[in-house]
Batch of 2 targets.
Target 1
Amino acid sequence: MTLFLLQLRNELWKLFAKKRTYIGFAMFLLAQNVIVLMFRFTHGPRVQMERVLEGNGYLAGQFISTLSVATFMLLPIAYMLLPLYASLVGGDLVAKEAEDGTLRMILSRPISRLRLLALKWLAGALFSFVLVMALGVFGLAFASLWFPWGGLFVFIPGEMFSVFDATAGAQHYAVAHLMMATKAMTIMGLAFMFSCFNVKPAAATILALSFVFVNFILMNIPYFRDLQHWFLTYHLNLWQLMFGQPIPWWRVWQSLSLLVAFNVTFLVIGLTAFHVRDIKS
Amino acid sequence: MIELTRVEKRFGRRLAVEDFTLHVSAGEIFGLLGHNGAGKSTAIGMMLGQVWPTAGEVRVCGHEVSRHRRQALRKVGAIFETPVFYDYLSGWRNLEILSHYTGPTPPQRIREVIDWVGLTGRERTKVKTYSHGMRARLAIAQALLPQPELLILDEPGDGLDPEGMHEIRQTIRRLHRELGLTILLSSHLLNEVEQLCTRICVMNQGRKVFEGSLADTKRAHQWVRLRANDFNRAAGLLQRERLIEATRDGELIALAPDVGTEAIVRRLVEEGIAVYEIARPEQTLETFYLELMKREGGAD
């Protein structure tokens, strides 16, 4: 076990010491700041939010807050940037080492391929978790520079209208991020699976992104509306359910268990492909 | 130390290694020779459990590699043609990471190998600042970490300048002399192999075409240089009398079995042909290799 932890620490070193690991992260922070400034200094989204709140009998001043703006930032980040970044990291984990030639050096040592992949997947999963948590904290920090602390208001047209006091809102915000970590891990795992095949890192990333976006597009075609629960993206969005009043826990557990199944499947396919593959220079 | 028995490897329809049998004993410096694409790296890949053989058995340190890879590679170090590392990490961190894939390694051991390869003082700087020679030394250091009994070197001199090549040769000799390692050296640099190895195996198009000692390569040579006042007349006479089997390049003759150079000289002098020189030209590994490839008809 001690050796496994040492090896995991080494994988994390490799991951966190790379500059390219932080390039994407810098983009996240930039996007968060742009959204906050847009919310603060333009009228569009803020006025719309005020109108919806006041139209439903709430005082807009209490809910145009740090929490509401930080949550407002989540949608574009979760739909666009997070899949891109998670698949970039997952696609790199095995394929980049194969491309660089370090994989051949690792596999000249008596470590099993199963153990190596387990280490890499775990490092990717930890990275995904840390990334989402950091995004949540930075989102709050940037929003707090321009907006006061207060209640949380979440509005997704046709899907959700929720208001919470500050304490409950903070709890929902935290749990939503925990669930969003499962989304990041699953997309990372999908790219990781492709990365185990004999492909370039970019190909693994593109394949994973294509899979997610095709799922998303198909899921939103009215013809497939009744079949939505068959799509991966339907379950990836379970973080949104954490802002429900009340939270539909049966749906959450259903999606969580399916995501676990998806992850195990991705891992098994990746492992099989990696195991039968010849590692050559 | 290494035993390959009737090993075959196919990549799709292409046969990369065919009916390959090899035996490397403990304590040897064994050379695996062949042109690019001859199957050397595939054979090494199979020894290290990186490439799965289609047929046959590969045993390293007494263990079958496909089934008992961990035991087989426990005391094996390997170096590949271009030393690649995590450039953004220090030499020390690279060694730490790579050594832990074998087992827990105390810092003292890492310090020892750094000292041994002469990288002391540079171990904490990032590998991206290392010269090619320093990378080669770091590659040797990582291979030495598990205290190996067998070292597999896949074209370690590739891309090095003559100084770097010399340094690598000296290091290989030191590894053999001071640490008593068995070394398998794969290379297409004949000079390097000739200077280092005691036995060699030559591969061509996935097949073994020669296995033996360097002395064998010299013995296998049958050509004798003959300089006479009329080479064509001399050759014709000797061939008619079955004293030689073939001629080449207007100055070389291949003696028939059990025929010595003295018999040739005597017969030519009897016929009034002046003989200026008769000698076996010094056989190098290069001439042996080129002749072998010519015979096999497969050199690139």
Target 2
Amino acid sequence: MNKIKYLSIAILVLLGCYGSANAQTPNDAIMMEGKQACVLFEYNYGTFYKYWEGSDLRENQTIATVYRNTVMPMAAIGIVDRLNFYIGVPYIKTKSSDPNGGQFAGAKGFQDLTVALKYQILNRESESGTFSLLAGVGFSTPISNYLPDYMPYSLGLGAPELSYRAIAQYEMKNGIYFRGGAAYLWRGYAKAEREYYYNDGSYYTPWMDVPNAITADFSLGTWLLEKALRVELNYLGSKSTSGDDIRAYNAPQPTNDIEIDRIGIFAHYYFPNIKGLGVAAYHNQVINGKNTARIRTTGIGVTYFFNYLKNKSQ
Amino acid sequence: MRSLIFFTLVATMLILSSCEKELPTHLSFDNYAFSTTDQDGGTWNTTLISSTYEISISEPTATSSSEYQQELAELKQEMSQMSDDERNAVEYWSDNSTIRWNEIALELIAKYNLIPGYNDDGTYTLPSPANPAGPPAFPFAHPPYAVRALAYMSVAQFDGLITAWHHKYIHNRPAPYQLDNEIEYAYMDNGIPSYPSHGAVIAAASKNVLTAMFPLEAEYLAQKEAEHLKSLLLSGGYVQSDIDAGKQIGDEIASIALVRASNDGMKNAQTPKPVSDSIADAAFDRYGWKWINKELPQRPVGLTPLYSKVRMWNVPNVEMTRPIPPPAIGSPEYLKDVEILKDYADNMTTERRRIANFWQDGLGTYTPPGHWNEFAKEFIVKYRLNPLRTARTFAYINMAMMDGGISCWDAKYYYHYPRPIQTIDGFKTIAGTPNFPSYTSGHSVFSAAGAEVLAYIFPQEAAVVREWAKEAAISRVYGGIHWTFDAYIGTDQGIDVAQYTIDIAKSDGAD
């Protein structure tokens, strides 16, 4: 059963990353066995009042406080024992608080469909604990015609993304674990609805080159209450490999060079008496960055596990 | 399984890395044979100078002279040592370099089209030519500033080229590649005499005007000019004395243009608050309404309230082009518009959003006049215009659009009509509401004026460009920042204003 629980945590951690427009693929060390599936439904609430224009943290009364609400259904499926498949798509709604100086309409709609595969390369148990090593690939792409060139209200970056990820974890017998992950995110082009834009020079095209990024994440967590509750502290760092700065008092655009340092807490509780059901909650904050919002996101979710094929040996 | 994943990963990466494409930063076009050479171009009417005789250049040396032969030898020496960068520069600048300088102007407009933000204490600091580095940097290249920069550059280019054509066909000096078989010309042979070099006129005139308009870019522009002048030499089309004579014309015509610019009233266009308030109060006394800025913190003064007083190019008096008053606030016509705007906001369609964004040309972009310069550029290449007619096209479109802007600003501050977000409670927009009154729409006037000039010069495209101008006008209504009558009447206003320029164009000797 524990492995099933782990999976829902995996999804939760993944989902928690959406609120900061920093989509991740499954980034933990937890695997689900073949013929098992998990569904998750999540709601999160993000808000920011300040953002980094280049490296300068500023407020902007034109947009006042920006809200970003997300609901997201997601599913994870164990294809075979060491290979998991993930699929999810968030619905996002953005707006500014009133009063604000810009009177811009917010945006809403489905953002990007994400599919991902994760493969367990190594899972070695020793007397003191378990070491595991995993690799993943993911792909996401917009599934609605949301406008990426409408920041800060745009739902996402508007570009296809491929992620290549490596994850390592060590879990001690007493339930304490450390995890580290690194990813390379290849991003394609976002399409604006204009034929000219400035990106340290003129571009005569609606296509905007969305910078690729590298990310690193670290977690420290533990199991409590006889493995009914898991709590975790985590850090995520993300850095574009190219891009331009937001210009003075100007809107961001998908070509920007983004850096994010984010910390978070996470908890997942499994009802011991209701088979397969869990609830999770998290909160994270961007604490430092470049050309990004100092967003704080709080999320809650429900997870449910089941076997999608019978007579599964556990 | 492991190897399968690895293989998939590598394969996808390879496929995707091959998708990385070069995004266009300028218009690519092949060198072309000009549709005409306009040997009588030196007789066409000028704008800044009363006649081409105002700028004289020295008699060129004969091609048989030892001085010229020395120049030719130096040219061959330079060409034999051309670096790859220089070769690329020759290709980039082309034989119709007005296109490149227009692109440079648009780039600087986009770079400087940033509205100053507020200070920590809620006040705003205006860009000042006395302290260009700021912050905020000078200039704020908003549409009125942008179209004025484009107009001065284009008119200087055109007068400069008329002057060059005048001298070219007096002296009829052949090009180096015509005199020496060993010299391979980089461009199409259009048989236009080389003295003075028209490219050098364009380089110097453009660089000087743009340096005055964008003082922080002096170094960048000087470097562009040097690269351009060098590329003329390396093209095999000009010896140094051809280039020097062209540069002299360019320098002189730019000085004349900049004297006009310094006295055209632009420096008073951004008024102090008491003047701005009195303009608003005058409108309120007249009509019972006035526009107010809704930003937070509130901007104390709208954008260039006295742009209406800037000297026009071809309209004798701005009031001749002032439109009828807009519908009174609360009138049935006004209330009908409120319903239209609410309906558009509540039922945004993909097509209306696309139109609103396509024509937005807002902060950080090349502005609506810039957009119409881009259209002009594409038609110039499509119809293979020579450099003289290229400059003529830009000169007339930018004069007409600047006159249109002045006329539009006259209406804006005379009628001082509120924006939709001011009078419709809780109204939200998908475009940024600008810091000036609503009636009439700048986009509508600029676009109609630009379209009319393009329709005159490229009659085959008349229907197309007029349709674009109407779409640009209505785009502002879709964006939620203009009333329908701002757009419709603005379009009529632009057509009206442009006619003054077109009348002058029709009698300049080119038709």
